[in-house]
Design goal:
The chain is α+β, with helices and mostly antiparallel strands. About 50% of the residues lie in helices and about 20% in strands. The strands form eight sheets. Strands 18-5-20-19 form a four-stranded antiparallel beta sheet. It has a four-stranded antiparallel beta sheet with strand order 14-7-16-15. Helix 5 crosses helix 7.
Length: about 650
């Protein structure tokens, strides 16, 4: 039959079919060269594209870092996604500008430098040394190849070289240092009272038209984020072990083969005489210590009491008063050399001199307590747990492979895979991209959840490995697109917001009224009326005892003239207002005992300023374009350096 097909495939019809098939493939190839249908571009830096995918990945990583840094204090509503996304884009553009400039001026990072940097990263170390498995597992978790990570390190090292080259010449003059200390250590004397906005909140006064108008003007504030509800099978050694069937015969067999796991090991009791000797002692000190310990050993051989010699001559203060007795102990407790000697002795025997990390010892074995194994009936619970753990570790990889196959064969459900393996299908609550927690927060899992195959096609995911300790297969049970919440659902929230806004406006007006009274000649106490006056106080810059918002306003206020005060007001948290009078300013002075540390701190700020200004200069000479997807047709370049955003 195959020969017949081959014979018939030699004519003009076969060639026509080949040509027809070739045309779409050729056009597809041309399309890829021309860039048609390629990934959306978020920004273009001097001809180099920053794709939306790159921006999305970095944005997700940035949010995860925020969650980790803030812990339980993290609240998604605290942050503006659009603003954070622009900040992340700024960072990416900055990095690309620095990278291009670095390459242009010939800065490089060699392979040995990259390897040394990676070997020194604590995240890849185990017991203080680089661990290849930890390194590979960390990269898998981030969805990176070794080559990709090395390239990232290379770029970072090159950018760091450039930053150092720009800032290395930073210096601080004596006048700059003196002025900085004068301002930083300045203190101010003042008194104040607070007008709380709660005094002006009214129950009524907000109409339906007001609510509707606010809703239409601020519609973007009432977006319900995209949500998914998942079902999943989580497999690890513990889960695999829970599927194992057990009976008395199996457990007894395991118990008999592993009796030493279910009882106390052998313990020994020893006494010792110690002559201290440092590990790095020179030969003269070693000779002297050996001479002393040999003399004591000879006294023991001559029949003198070991306990009496230990009391009189041992240099271990903890045991000397007890005749050198150390009590009973098992293996893994003492210094390795000491332990080896103890477990090699017969009861009542005295060792030859033994050197440990503490010094030289004479050791006498004074007792042996044989290991004790629990009876099977008493240890049954421990035996079953240990058996399931051991079997789970053995079965895990086999079951993971089966889970991958079964979930692929029936891509529309997890039930058949769970039933075949004796596992359970679990369900998550509604989750947003910002609320992914636990195993779902891992980059590989998040990428799978929001992939087209899983999210849109509703297929099971592939088997996702979790740090080498488990695996996960998931599917999307339900999905809600981001949408604007209906007015009825947010009406109460808007009403509360409008009431608070109007209350704050009235609070501000009241503060201005009372401030005018002070400027017309009334005292702070007279202007305060029924509000309590706090002060006079003397506070330093950024004093934590002040209400938030008052300190920054107070230290921007003009110095009062002689025999006068400077009145002012400041908005506090929740819309409250403080009215104050500044009565005095005490300039800071240089602390001679701490000049070096203070100078270095100011020099760091100066370096940051140099780098910022240089960055603005470079950015002005680069072709920087941002796509419409960012929300702005024309972008004013914002440079991210020194831990803050600086517009150029």
């Amino acid at each position: 039959m195959l020969q017949e097909i081959r014979d018939k495939a030699q004519g003009w019809i076969a060639w026509a079919i080949v040509i027809l098939i070739s045309v779409p493939f050729a056009l597809w190839g041309i399309q890829s060269y021309l860039g048609v249908g390629s990934e959306p571009v978020a920004a273009m830096v001097n001809g180099t594209e920053i794709t939306e995918r790159t921006l999305d990945n970095r944005f997700q990583r940035f949010r995860r870092q925020l969650r980790e840094q803030l812990g339980s204090a993290y609240r998604p509503e605290m942050f503006d996604d659009a603003g954070m996304r622009k900040e992340v884009l700024n960072r990416l553009m900055r990095e690309e500008v620095l990278q291009q400039t670095s390459e242009k001026i010939g800065l490089r990072a060699g392979k040995s430098m990259i390897q040394a940097t990676i070997l020194g990263m604590s995240m890849f170390q185990k017991d203080g040394r680089f661990d290849q498995q930890t390194y590979e597992g960390a990269l898998r978790l981030q969805g990176l190849s070794a080559t990709g990570f090395e390239d990232r390190v290379r770029r970072a090292l090159v950018s760091e070289q450039l930053a150092q080259a720009v800032t290395v010449g930073a210096f601080v003059t004596d006048h700059e240092f003196t002025e900085s200390q004068r301002l930083l250590k300045q203190t101010r004397e003042f008194s104040y009272f607070v007008i709380p906005t709660a005094d002006f909140v009214l129950d009524g006064g907000v109409s339906d038209d007001d609510v509707r108008g606010y809703y239409e003007t601020n519609e973007s504030a009432f977006i319900s984020p995209e949500k998914v509800k998942l079902e999943y099978i989580l497999l690890d050694a513990g889960t695999a072990g829970s599927t194992v069937n057990t009976d008395q015969a199996l457990l007894r067999g395991y118990y008999e083969n592993n009796e030493d796991e279910f009882g106390l090991p052998e313990q020994r009791r020893a006494s010792h005489i110690l002559i201290l000797l440092a590990q790095d002692a020179d030969q003269a000190a070693v000779d002297e210590a050996e001479s002393k310990i040999e003399a004591l050993a000879e006294s023991v051989r001559q029949g003198e009491s070991f306990a009496d010699i230990a009391k009189a001559r041992s240099q271990d203060p903890g045991s000397a008063t007890k005749g050198g007795d150390l009590g009973f102990f098992g293996k893994g407790i003492m210094d390795p050399a000491f332990e080896t000697a103890v477990f090699a002795l017969q009861e009542g025997e005295v060792s030859e001199p033994v050197r440990s990390s503490f010094g030289l010892h004479l050791i006498k074995l004074t007792g042996i307590k044989a290991g004790d194994v629990k009876p099977f009936e008493e240890a049954l619970g421990e035996v079953e747990a240990a058996y399931r753990k051991a079997e789970g570790e053995r079965l895990y990889f086999e079951m993971a492979e089966q889970l991958a196959d079964l979930s692929y064969e029936d891509p529309a459900s997890l039930e058949s895979a769970a039933n075949a393996l004796g596992l359970s299908v679990q369900q998550s609550d509604w989750l947003t991209r910002d609320q992914m927690q636990g195993v779902f927060a891992k980059p590989k899992v998040m990428a799978s959840v929001f992939s087209e195959d899983v999210l849109q096609q509703r297929n099971n995911s592939e088997l996702l490995e979790l740090d080498g300790a488990g695996s996960l297969v998931l599917r999307v049970l339900d999905h809600q697109q981001a949408s604007t919440l209906p007015l009825d659902e947010v009406k109460d929230r808007i009403t509360e917001t409008l009431r608070n806004q109007r209350a704050e406006e009235q609070t501000r007006a009241e503060a201005e009224k009372r401030l005018a009274e002070i400027r017309s000649g009334n005292s702070l106490t007279q202007a305060a009326g029924g509000y309590a006056v706090t002060g006079p106080l003397t506070v330093a810059r950024n004093d934590t005892q002040l209400p938030m918002g008052l300190s920054s306003t107070l230290f921007r206020a003009e110095k009062p003239l002689a025999d006068a005060v400077t009145p002012g007001s400041a908005r506090l948290a929740e819309g409250d207002y403080a009215v104050y009078v500044l009565t005095g300013v005490i300039e800071g002075s240089v602390d001679q005992a701490d000049v070096q540390q203070q100078t270095e701190g100011l020099r760091r700020l100066t370096r940051s300023g140099y780098l910022t200004q240089w960055g603005c200069h470079v950015a002005a000479q680069r072709d920087l374009r941002v796509s419409k997807q960012t929300g702005s047709k024309v972008m004013r370049w914002t440079f991210y350096l020194g831990g803050s955003l600086r517009s150029c």
